[in-house]
Amino acid sequence: MAAAAGTPARASFGLKQAQVPVSKISNVRSVSLPIGGRSFPSLKARRFQVSCAAKRETVDKVCQIVRKQLALPDDASVTGESKFANLGADSLDTVEIVMGLEEEFGISVEEESAQTITTVQEAADMIEKLIEKN
């Protein structure tokens, strides 16, 4: 029977956590990504824009429909960023909102699409896309 003898081998390595400096520039963050010792230009927020496909009128009309379907008071804040769940809507309320949107805009929303809508803006964007198709 053969036996192997030797010293135990040790391997150690460490991962150095990347330090990403973040600085504030007029309430907007910019990020510089140093890679391999080289520094690349900072990514500034002004290079990125959030654009909404829906017209302001569409968003406003969706806000009105949501306010009506959920029986919200006139002073309740409903904006494009408003989430249906945060406004107190359950799944049945969301179905009723979609039905109200279909009736108001003369569109038909497929069930799969209706289930993905969580905000006023998403609803308005979907409406604009459906109107463009027709």
Report the helical percentage. 25-40%
Q: Give the uncertain stretches in residue-range form.
A: 11-28
Strand count:
5
Strand order of the largest sheet: 1-2-5
Order of helices and strands: EEEEEHHHH
Largest sheet: 3 strands, antiparallel
Rg for CA atoms:
26 Å
Q: What quaternary form is this?
A: single chain
The assigned structural class equals alpha+beta
Helical stretch tally: 4
Mean pLDDT: 77
Keywords: Fatty acid biosynthesis, Fatty acid metabolism, Lipid biosynthesis, Lipid metabolism, Phosphopantetheine, Phosphoprotein
Pfam families: PP-binding
GO biological process, one term: fatty acid biosynthetic process
Protein name: Acyl carrier protein
Give me some keywords for this one.
single chain, 134 residues, alpha+beta, three-stranded antiparallel sheet, 5 strands, 37% helix, 10% strand
Describe the protein in words.
Keywords: Fatty acid biosynthesis, Fatty acid metabolism, Lipid biosynthesis, Lipid metabolism, Phosphopantetheine, Phosphoprotein. Belongs to the acyl carrier protein (ACP) family. Carrier of the growing fatty acid chain in fatty acid biosynthesis. This protein is 37% helix and 10% strand. A hairpin with a 2-residue loop joins strand 3 and strand 4. It has helices at 56-69, 91-105, 111-116, 120-133, and strands at 22-25, 28-31, 34-35, 38-39, 43-44. It has a three-stranded antiparallel β-sheet with strand order 1-2-5, with no helix packed on it. It has a two-stranded antiparallel sheet with strand order 3-4. Residues 11-28 have low confidence and may be disordered.
